[in-house]
Amino acid sequence: MEFVITMNAAGWVVLIGGALIIGIVYQLIGRLVAEVHMPFEWVVTAIFAFLGGLVAGQFVTEWLTIEPVWEGLALVPALIGGLVTGGVAAIVTRLVTGGTLIGHPHPA
Length: 108
Hints:
Blueprint: H1 9-33, H2 41-59, E1 69-70, E2 73-74, H3 75-96
Antiparallel strand pairs: 1-2
């Protein structure tokens, strides 16, 4: 098994941008649905989304044939990998920092 990254610069930009978007979206969802105690949870989530997208979009050789592939990045596997690992990171980070996964009722 070879670990070769075949992405061009544009593929890196898409992967990094997608990871940042995933991190921010999970942070916003956390603020709307649950209690978040860490204001920069999105950074941890984005890092893990980036790593999940990189592994799924580059190193899982069975997924490299899934179209569309743009600038050396298999887009669908990278998106799925980023969403899954980013989601797990968001949940774990929220629970470790004392947040919750469900909202609390507010008094009227």
